[in-house]
Every structure is written in C-alpha cells, then in structure tokens.
Amino acid sequence: MISIELKFIVDVGVSNKVENWLAAQGFDVVNVRDIDPRLPDHEIAKIATKENRMVITMDKDFGELVYRTNATHTGVLLLRLDGYSSQEKVNVLKRILEEHQDKIVGKFCVYKDNNLRIR
How far is it, in rounded angstroms, from Cα 41 to Cα 57? Predict the structure, then answer.
C-alpha cells in the first residue's frame, strides 16, 4: 500500500506522466520543469533539502553530487530507465513505492534492471 507522506521534486528528464501520476495519487510534487528546466543539480538538491523532498531523477550526476561532494540530501531516487516509455516509468515507480516506500526515505536509491539498491 502506498502512503502519501513522502514529498517529491521531479527532475526534468523523468516524464510528465510520472509527475501527473504522483500528483493523482495525492503526493506533494514539485516539478523542476516548472521552476527552471536548466536548474543545476546542486540547486535542485538545495530545494529538496529545504522542503524535505525526495529527488526523482534519471541524471546520474546526482550520484557524484551526493557521494563525492557529500551534499546534504533528503533522499534521491535515481531511475536508470533509458529507453523506457512514460507508462513503464510509472509502473516502475508504482512498484518501488508499493514495495519499498518505508525503506527509501532519506536514502540514495538506484533502480536499474529490475533491481533497487538502497544506500
């Protein structure tokens, strides 16, 4: 069961369909596209931290931001879903939230090849 306690900031490359699905589920969602589509990753992380939001992104640079610079974050979900349709991305996110929502809060998570790594 999905709880709507998490808040998200969705990066530009993820998909409007994912953003719309999250909003339809009742999640508090902010879209980077609506703030500034060219917003640098460190600024996205600052907004996310200030507003206690988990970043949903397809941008691998967030790994470097978090691990090499030790940037403060309130959770990152890196979706390695290149080539997936918008609906497939929604399906993956739905499954992640149904099965792992309580474990991903505040963590750096990477989804790739049907596997979710949580650090």
Answer: 10
Report if residue 77 sits inside a domain.
Answer: yes
> pLDDT tens digit string along 66-77?
777 777 788 999
| DSSP-assigned letter for residue 114 | T
Q: Which of 1, 57, 54 is nearest to 25 (CA)?
A: 1
DSSP 93-107: HHHHHHHHHHHHTTS
pLDDT confidence band for 55 (50 / 70 / 90)? very high
pTM, to two decimals? 0.92
Three-class secondary structure of residue 10 per DSSP: strand
**What is the domain extent for residue 30?**
7-118
In a domain, 113, yes or no: yes
Q: 25, 26, 31: which is closest to 9 by C-alpha?
A: 31
